[in-house]
């Protein structure tokens, strides 16, 4: 998914080298609404990057959306756009999205299936609700920052139609990335992390095992969710810190959430628009290349053409007047 804001925030250079011991035990991160496209765009709830906290492990971006009634509407329509230095994870609770990318991948994604795109040195992709889409669209889009030694890997796409799952009396745990107990996802990862989809029955309770060396957060996709004794509104994220061996969740109504976690990211990074780099110059180089390539016939493209998409690609927004500067992994009041 693209960050299609015309004026992306400049607070997107993250530093993770600060002592984790100073972090709070829990912290509720409220999302902001962002339009996904033009004037008639669907709106998404962006929990990461947040004003107070910009990463959880290597997870650096988290949008959730729906459930939305898209009967008679185009639904999700995100034109070709570029990425660098990250992996994208799409997770649907309802509906379907067609993925096309610069390495030739074309997939219709449905609930319970995991498309994982590794941008590495650069890739472009589009995301669209198909013309014959169902009436509802509901899900999340996540980004994982790549460590420096893997940041320039060749772009790639993998698709997993089934994932390991713990079926429990009052809910389930589906492992998207990493592992939960003995359930290990087949998805390729480049740093120690975990991602899991959690479902709870109405009035249900769920105890989710955690790796104590990881920091974790719970992203609420539905109302009535409580995690670690804290009510988490739809689209909000509860940061859980480190040192926990489990987190307890309850749901007033049948619902869903995402668990995100990993070893605290120990590298500074710059995230602007759809690019993750290590310096202002990295971003300038990626933006300049994208503007020269998209909608042109140049050969040997860094991002690759998105064949099969009918329409123009997204242009990159203007860079800020000042150089992008490090602002810390989280807000200084921590």
UniProtKB/TrEMBL annotation:
The Pirin C-terminal domain covers 197-292
Known cofactor(s): Fe cation
Q: How is the cofactor bound?
A: Binds 1 Fe cation per subunit.
Which Gene3D superfamilies did the record assign?
Answer: Jelly Rolls
Q: Which domain of life is it from?
A: Bacteria
Keywords, sorted A to Z: Iron, Metal-binding
Listed InterPro entries: Pirin (IPR012093), Pirin_C_dom (IPR008778), Pirin_N_dom (IPR003829), RmlC-like_jellyroll (IPR014710), RmlC_Cupin_sf (IPR011051)
Q: Name one GO molecular function term.
A: metal ion binding
Entry annotated with the keyword rRNA-binding? no
Q: Where does Fe cation bind?
A: 81, 83, 125, 127
The chain positions of domain Pirin N-terminal read 42-144
Question: Which family would the database say this protein is a member of?
Answer: Belongs to the pirin family.
The name this protein carries in UniProt is: Pirin
- What is the species of this protein? Halosaccharopolyspora lacisalsi
């Amino acid at each position: 998914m693209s960050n299609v804001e015309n004026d992306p925030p400049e607070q997107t250079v993250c530093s993770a080298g600060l002592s984790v011991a100073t972090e709070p035990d829990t912290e509720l991160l409220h999302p902001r609404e962002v339009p996904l496209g033009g004037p008639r765009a669907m709106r998404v709830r962006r929990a990461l990057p947040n004003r107070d906290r910009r990463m959880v492990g290597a997870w650096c971006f988290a949008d959730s959306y729906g459930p939305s009634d898209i009967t008679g509407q185009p639904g999700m329509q995100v034109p070709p756009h570029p990425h660098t230095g990250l992996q994208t994870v799409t997770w649907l609770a309802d509906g379907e999205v067609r993925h096309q990318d610069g390495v030739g991948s074309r997939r219709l994604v449905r609930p319970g299936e995991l498309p994982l795109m590794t941008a590495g040195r650069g890739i472009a992709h589009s995301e669209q609700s198909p013309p014959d889409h169902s009436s509802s669209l509901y899900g999340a889009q996540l980004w994982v920052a790549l460590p420096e030694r893997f940041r320039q890997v060749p772009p790639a796409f993998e698709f997993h139609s089934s994932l390991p799952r713990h079926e429990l009396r009052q809910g389930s745990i589906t492992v998207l990335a990493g592992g939960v107990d003995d359930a290990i996802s087949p998805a390729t990862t480049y740093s120690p992390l975990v991602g899991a989809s959690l479902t709870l029955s109405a009035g249900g309770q769920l105890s989710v095992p955690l790796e104590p060396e990881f920091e974790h957060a719970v992203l609420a996709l539905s109302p009535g969710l409580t995690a670690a004794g804290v009510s988490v509104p739809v689209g909000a994220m509860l940061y859980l810190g480190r040192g926990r061996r489990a987190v307890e969740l309850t749901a007033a109504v049948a619902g869903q959430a995402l668990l995100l976690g990993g070893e605290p990211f120990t590298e500074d990074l710059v995230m602007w628009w759809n690019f993750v780099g290590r310096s202002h110059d990295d971003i300038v180089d990626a933006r300049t290349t994208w503007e020269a390539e998209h909608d042109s016939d140049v050969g040997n493209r860094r991002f690759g053409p998105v064949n099969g998409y009918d329409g123009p690609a997204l242009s990159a927004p203007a860079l800020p007047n000042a150089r992008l500067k490090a602002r810390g992994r989280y807000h200084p009041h921590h």
